[in-house]
Amino acid sequence: MSIIAIVTGANRGIGLEVCHQLAQQGVTVVLGSRDLAKGQQAVQPYIQQGLLIDVQQLDVTDNQSIERLRQYIDITYHRVDVLVNNAAILYDTWQHAVDADLQVVKQALDTNIFGAWRMCQAFIPLLHKSSHGRIVNVSSEAGSLTTMGEGTPAYNVSKTALNALTRMLSAELHSAGILVNSICPGWVATEMGGAGGRPVQEGAAGIIWAALLPDDGPTGGFFRDGKPLAW
């Protein structure tokens, strides 16, 4: 029976490549895209290759959008095996913590941490129906307290909070066999990351690793390329 995976914010960049690589491994992927038409357009080359990517409208800041997706997946697939919380916004390089626009910070938090939290709360009941429950929170070393410096306050704080959510959920879901990890894909050449980063295929590979961990794999960790990072 095919693994069922949800990937949020997946109509471009790392999220789209994660969908591509998962589908190449026989996973049935539900691609969440805030703009349904953009998601459908993005996957056309993969659909033509026969890959199973089911594009659905999803805005992780909208409870009604999340609930519609939850109902659809419950009726269509009856369970979820993998939830990849990839949706993220606002790499605010123009800001500093001393004078940051807190409305911008709140906007980043609403997607980057509360969006992932909403998704987890909505889909954990369906993950409990899986024998391969995995939650992958796409984080960043920018959220590491060990290495954190100045700048990008909205983005950094949101990723630190996402890492904290990973730790709490991993402890709460451990007895159910649901593995929860944070993954830093590294600096990747995407629309958000900008030119000069590593190829998107390399950034996505670490997320695939966490999504398809064996049952005795790690949980509650922070990794890049399968290797631990400092919190």
What key attributes describe this structure?
231 residues; alpha/beta; Rossmann fold; eight-stranded mixed beta sheet; 7 helices
3D architecture notes:
With 231 residues, the chain is of the alpha/beta class. It has one domain: NAD(P)-binding Rossmann-like Domain (Rossmann fold, 3-Layer(aba) Sandwich), CATH 3.40.50. 42% of the residues lie in helices and 15% in strands. It has 7 helices and 8 strands, in the order βαβαβαβααβαβαββ. It has helices at residues 13-24, 36-48, 63-76, 102-112, 114-127, 153-173, 200-211, and strands spanning 4-7, 28-33, 53-57, 82-85, 134-138, 179-183, 222-224, 227-228. An 8-stranded mixed β-sheet has the order 3-2-1-4-5-6-7-8, sandwiched between helices. The longest helix is centred in the C-terminal third of the chain and has 21 residues, at 153-173. The model has no long low-confidence stretch (mean pLDDT 95).
What is this structure, in a nutshell?
With 231 residues, the chain is of the alpha/beta class. It has helices at residues 13-24, 36-48, 63-76, 102-112, 114-127, 153-173, 200-211, and strands spanning 4-7, 28-33, 53-57, 82-85, 134-138, 179-183, 222-224, 227-228. It has a single domain (4-228), classed as 3-Layer(aba) Sandwich (Rossmann fold).
